[in-house]
Amino acid sequence: MAHFAELNKNNKVLRVVVIANDKCLKDGRESEAVGIAFCERLFKGGIWKQTSYNFNIRYNYAGVGDIYDAELDAFIKPQPYPSWALDETCQ
To answer: Which single residue of 20, 49, 69, 85 has CA 20 to 30 Å from 34?
Structure first.
């Protein structure tokens, strides 16, 4: 199964959906772009990024309320305290 996060215009995660692997295939290989196109068709638009609960891409599994940082290409949990900083694993 493939997991995709829908983002708002400020890159905040609105929801995470699961789609069948066969909806993400191009020439027999998984393609994020194909999965994004499937989500856009299914949900009538939106901004989508693939996420992984195995932490294979984008450091962290996306959750509702998380932020996608395009510069780091990572999903980041909200900062709990102003004194806390991200480490090299985006935690």
So the answer is: 69
